[in-house]
Design a protein that fits this description.
This is NADPH-dependent methylglyoxal reductase Grp2p. With about 325 residues, the chain is an alpha/beta fold. About 40% of the residues lie in helices and about 15% in strands. The structure holds NADPH dihydro-nicotinamide-adenine-dinucleotide phosphate.
């Protein structure tokens, strides 16, 4: 039985990854930051073991966990801070993302040389050009890079998150090139991830950063000024989980899975909710129905045809939004 280590197992995306792994018969060891989170996952999943890794930024963070599980052959590194609640960008975002990734890879090389495959959860943040772009810019592909520097990343939490992911992914590829470990590597680079929580226990008052955008539409009620302003791209979390499995089950190596389902904007999400969920009629804003199309038309284009060829069709924005909202209102 293949044993898979998943860092940050209590995260929104990781819970779906772990759920899929368990359903396919993999043995899963997850790292979590507290006993409470580990025990909750043990309740939600039939078969799950965990190790405590309180802070991935601490040197040797994964050493003890990997020393214990000498039969792990696949390592999925999903743990990384995704929030904007800090003014200390360097310590709260950049360090855990970059050092956390290096620490994971270093521990694998030193204490788990039997590991054959590593998948790092990166982000479209590592793909977008730091200088922006619009519909007239060259399309973003699996080869595109955010060339932001460490210093530029310290500007504020939003820029810091983008930088943290770009620099962490660069550090991972650099490790592979210079340290020549036994394992091969792929990255999964999702854009904004929506979709239901893996387990109803994940439904908290405030959800993970990406899901909170949709939750924010509900929380704003009919007060349009409170509706979160956001546009970009979406992918459903169930497709992100599938990508993680493809990234180690297939023969693909040295590849960046750019998992982007299509364009997104909050107006479009409001239209989907208002058209499909009658119980919310009159309880959330309508904005300017249909006007989202123009916003989405002006976004930079993404050509992720190489990724799509490997993974097939993605869940639609409509389905992703409907499933997310239906789960939230079922609480
Ligand atoms: P979550 O916040 O739900 O998950 C992040 C996970 O990382 C949590 O388990 C968290 O633990 C853990 N973590 C964060 N910082 C540390 C640390 N210093 N030490 C140990 N563990 C830590 O977010 P997502 O599931 O959305 O994100 C998972 C991954 O996917 C991240 O790498 C993120 O950058 C990436 N991603 C997410 C996107 C999205 O839209 N959701 C888009 C693109 C990429 P705890 O909760 O206990 O703090």
């Amino acid at each position: 039985m293949v044993k898979v280590f998943v860092s940050g197992a209590s995260g929104f995306i990781a819970q779906h990854v772990v759920k899929l792994l368990v359903s396919k018969g993999y043995k899963v060891i997850g790292s979590v930051r507290s006993i409470e989170k580990g025990e909750q996952l043990k309740k939600d999943l039939v078969d799950f073991e965990y190790e405590i890794v309180e802070d991935i930024a601490v040197p040797g963070a994964f050493d003890e966990a990997l020393k214990k599980h000498t039969d792990v052959t696949v390592f999925l590194h999903t743990a990384s801070p995704f929030h904007y609640n800090t003014t200390d960008v360097e310590n709260d975002l950049l360090k855990p993302a970059i050092e956390g990734t290096k620490n994971a890879l270093k521990s694998i090389q030193e204490y788990a040389p039997q590991v054959e495959k590593v998948v790092v959860t990166s982000s479209m943040a590592a793909v977008y050009s730091a200088s922006g772009g619009d519909a007239s810019s060259p399309p973003l592909t699996e080869e595109s890079w955010n060339d932001i520097t460490f210093e530029e990343s310290k500007a504020n939490a939003r820029v810091g998150y983008l930088g943290s992911k770009a620099l962490a992914e660069k550090a991972a590829w650099e490790f592979l090139k210079t340290k020549k470990p036994n394992f091969t590597m792929n990255t999964v680079n999702p854009t904004l991830v929506f979709g239901p929580q893996a387990f109803p226990t994940g439904l908290k008052e405030t959800l993970n950063t990406s899901s909170e955008i949709l939750n924010g539409i509900l929380k704003a009620g009919t007060d349009e000024s409170k509706v979160p302003a956001r546009s970009g791209f979406y992918i459903d979390v169930r497709d992100v989980a599938k990508a993680h499995l493809h990234a180690f089950e297939s023969d693909v190596t040295n590849f960046r899975y750019v998992v982007v389902g299509g364009p997104f904007c909050v107006q479009e999400a409001m239209d989907i909710i208002n058209e499909n969920i009658p119980s919310l009629k009159g309880k959330i804003s309508v904005g300017e129905p249909g006007s989202g199309e123009e916003i989405m038309k002006n976004l930079v284009k993404v050509d992720n045809s190489k990724t799509r060829e490997l993974l097939g069709d993605f869940i639609s924005l409509e389905q992703s939004v409907i499933d997310s909202i239906n789960q939230i209102i079922s609480k």
